[in-house]
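Please, structure for the following, as tokens.
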Amino acid sequence: MRGVFFRKERNGVTLFVRLTPKSAKDAVEGVEATDDGRAHLKARVRAVPEDGKANAALEKLLAQWLGVAARDVSIGAGATSRLKQVKISGDPEALASKLARLGSPDE
């Protein structure tokens, strides 16, 4: 069974993201499922993982990808890990609908 890469919350959604820093480009590359059935949104940023630079770049990238204000995107957990939980503030139904369209898993 394939997992989902986000969870609806009361005031938005939480994205499960696998971040690769020091990449050649900033990009969201789709959804990746792990062997244990969990799913993560794969993202790459050019920034280095020092002083929160890669996290800030991820927040900016996701805000642009989702078409939301940068202030509505924040790292909720995993600040020093490749696997992160990113909080997106807003209407949970609208965000979930947008995420389902943008990152629909293939298979």
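Strands lie at 6-9, 12-20, 27-33, 39-44, 73-77, 83-89. The chain has a mean pLDDT of 88.
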